[in-house]
Specification:
By secondary structure, the protein is α+β, with helices and mostly antiparallel strands. The chain contains two helices and six strands.
Length: 126
Amino acid sequence: MQVTRSKDGKTAVLSFLEGSGVSGSLSLDEAQLSQLITSLGLAHAALIEKRPPAPIAGARFTPVYTTNWALQIDALTEGSMLAFQHPAYGPVGVVFGPQDVEQIIHGLQKQRTMIRSNPQDASTPS
C-alpha cells in the first residue's frame, strides 16, 4: 500500500499498489489511522513474540524531541516505566528493570557533567 495525505490535509489515503491484485483506496481520519497503526503494531508484536528483541546497535530511528511523557513505578518488575506520546505511533511505554535504571541514572549523571559553552545549549539536541 501507498500512504499519502489528502489534498485538504485532513485524512490519510491508503492506496493499493499496482500488481497487488486489488484496486482502490481508503481514506482514514486521524482516529481511524491511529487505530490502524495500533492494530498493525499489535499484529506485528504477535508475529515476533517468540523471538528475542532485535539488536539496537546500528538500528535506524527517528528521535522524538517534543512530547508529553510520564515516569511510573512498575510493580510487576520493581522497575520504572517511561511512557511518552510518539507522534507517529501514539502512546509508547518501556519498562526498565532495576539494573537498567542504574545504567540510566549513571548515563544521566554523566550527561550532567558535560561542559557547555552556552547554558541554553543544554536544551538543544546535539
